[in-house]
Amino acid sequence: MVKFEELKKKIPTQITVLGGGSWATALVKILCENNVKIKWWIRRKSDVDFIRKYNHNPSYLTDVVINPRKVKTYHKMSDALNGTEYIILAIPAAFIPSTLKDLHAKHFEGKKIVSAIKGMIPDENILVTDWMEKAFNLPLGNSCVIAGPCHAEEIALEKQSYLTIASPKVETAQSFANLLNSRFLQAHAIGDLYGVEYCAVIKNIIAIACGITRGLGFGDNFQAVLVSNAMQEIKVFLDKVYPATERDLNSSGYLGDLLVTAYSQFSRNRTFGNMLGKGYSVKSAQMEMNMIAEGYYAVKSIYLISKSHDLNLPIIDAVYNIVYGKANPKEEMGRLKGHLK
Ligand SMILES: NC(=O)C1=CN([C@@H]2O[C@H](COP(=O)(O)OP(=O)(O)OC[C@H]3O[C@@H](n4cnc5c(N)ncnc54)[C@H](OP(=O)(O)O)[C@@H]3O)[C@@H](O)[C@H]2O)C=CC1
Ligand SMILES: O=C(CO)COP(=O)(O)O
Fold first, then answer.
1. Which amino acids does the record list as binding NAD(+) (predicted)?
2. Which of 5, 8, 52, 336 lies 20 to 30 angstroms, CA to CA, from 127?
């Protein structure tokens, strides 16, 4: 007789992915390495139809093959949420409230919520997991975040990658990490949900700073100092806003995430910053990109939170002044030089 545990292993895990951008596409590809069934919600009907017909996303990571035996695409969100165990959010944070506006607590009941988002909810200035918990009355132990140094473009190329899954209930993080482990990806679980999430948000702001200084002609020597000072700013912020005794900021879920975004050619935030450094206005830099730089929204929230705690964070301040205060990038970075060591 087949044992219940063995039978359970053979039943595919039902997962919903919300969002049709690069990271959603990469996550669908990773998950398809394992025994899963995916309901994938995408906002544009034309993209849904295209994937159904050609098994490729027409707009992002267009080379990735979408396995039709494992993935079903949906345009109606409530259909994509029926009967799933995990709901993965992969929509830029700024659009979460409007995109989820028709959902209710019952859509999330008994499900694990995984945020793959590295951004803040604007105006409310809160983390996505915090917003979800309040909006849909979710138990935080059912939530986790995906962090770590990982660009969608490298997943498309099956380059060896690592992810950190964080949840206050480590078993929740571990069970989701198990679904990601595959040929080219290793995931591990930790308990520091808000710490990892804040770090993932702040590193996008630092990448904007790196891009600005690159655009202005600063070199590797300067960037190394900028990034090491940035890590100290992250520590000052976390120690004040969300202190924890067992947090290793040098591990890949924190420092690694900062490094990949600060140095990679694939970084959206660095590309955005580079354009600002080269003299583009904020609006024109955004229009040039067909992707979203989360740091643009996040810097306002993080700046306001840091001021409410009387924190002195010169790199964050400089990016805020350039992006929202219309400060001249050259003058602002000239001022910042004096604060670094
Ligand atoms: N890309 C990566 O390597 C990684 C990304 N992340 C995070 O994943 C999240 C999603 O980013 P990513 O997939 O990169 O996004 P992309 O920049 O690849 O794509 C932008 C996404 O935002 C959607 N969008 C744009 N405008 C709106 C709007 N007004 N309302 C609703 N949706 C909108 C787009 O939909 P449409 O095409 O219909 O316009 C598209 O799905 C972000 O929080 C990011 O930080 C995390 C780790 C890695
Ligand atoms: O968070 C991300 C990768 O870790 C995506 O942001 P970037 O594209 O700016 O790196």
1. 95, 152, 268
2. 336
Residue 246's SS3 state is: coil
Architecture of the CATH domain 195-337: Orthogonal Bundle (1.10)
State the Cα torsion 210-121-231-261 to the nearest 10°.
-40
10 Å Cβ neighbour count for 325?
Answer: 11
Q: Do the strands 71-74 and 120-121 form a parallel or antiparallel pair, or are they unpaired?
A: unpaired
- Output the pTM of the full model: 0.96
Q: How far apart are CA 70 and CA 6, in angstroms?
A: 21
Kind of pairing between the strands at 112-115 and 86-89: parallel
Please give the full DSSP string across 180-232, using - where no structure is assigned: H-BTTEEEEEES-HHHHHHHHHHHHHHHHHHHHHHHTT--HHHHHHHHHHHHH
Q: Cβ distance 291 to 266 under 8 Å? A: no
Q: What is the pLDDT of residues 314-333, one digit of tens each?
A: 999 999 999 999 999 999 99
- For a ligand 2 pocket test, name from 61, 117, 120, 261 the mutation site with the most ligand atoms within 8 angstroms of its C-beta: 261
Q: With beta carbons less than 8 A apart as the criterion, state whether 224 and 259 touch.
A: no
93 CA to centre of ligand 1 in angstroms: 9
From the CB of residue 286, how many other CB atoms can be counted at a distance below 10 Å?
15
pLDDT tens digit string along 14-64?
999 999 999 999 999 999 999 999 999 999 999 999 999 999 999 999 999
In 3D space, the residue among 153, 19, 176, 173 whose CA is nearest the CA of residue 94 turns out to be 19
Residue carrying structure tokens 């544009």: 44
Can 4-191 and 195-337 be said to share one CATH topology?
no
Question: Which stretches in the chain have pLDDT values below 50?
Answer: none
Interface ipTM: 0.98
**3-state SS assignment for residue 119:** coil
Residue with tokens 């976390």: 238
Query: Top-level CATH class of 4-191?
Result: alpha beta
Q: Where are the domains of the chain?
A: 4-191, 195-337
Is the minimum distance from the CB of 207 to ligand 2 under 6 angstroms? Answer: yes
269 lines ligand 2 (CB under 6 A): yes
Cα 26 to Cα 90, 163, 189, distances in angstroms: 10, 13, 20
